[in-house]
Specification:
The structure is a single chain. The chain is mainly alpha-helical and about 140 residues long. It has five helices and no strands. α1 packs antiparallel against α2, α1 runs parallel beside α3 and α3 packs antiparallel against α5. The two termini are about 35 Å apart. Keywords: Membrane, Transmembrane, Transmembrane helix.
Amino acid sequence: MRIFNAAAAGLIAALLLYFLVSLGNIKAAFYFFLAGWVIFTFIFNRRAESIRKIWARACLTAAVECLIIPVAALLLPFFYGQHSVQAARQGALAAGQTVGSAMGGGIINMLTGYTGILIGFVLLATAYFSLKPVRRRR
């Protein structure tokens, strides 16, 4: 049962890794997904005494990935965003389309960034309370 839970948790962590890698290079993302699934499954199952510890590790890993995704989404347009602007014609219509896409992309980037940070903090809290030892009343 632990191996099944470790594989399911590894699948979720690998899917988040796939999203992270696909922001930069879509061709290599599937290979990162497969390698991440195997590696995360092994890491989550290694010396895990219980299923609770597996899922706590998965929450911690997913939280880190969720916190990295908005940062990567904010930084990658500085490296990849100029190609589309340079390829556009410099007419009035093209300039309006460029400004509109920049504004729309910025709003979507901001909303997804805040959502990723919120999900990351929720997963960090879940991992913290899962790993925290239970106090017993006497």
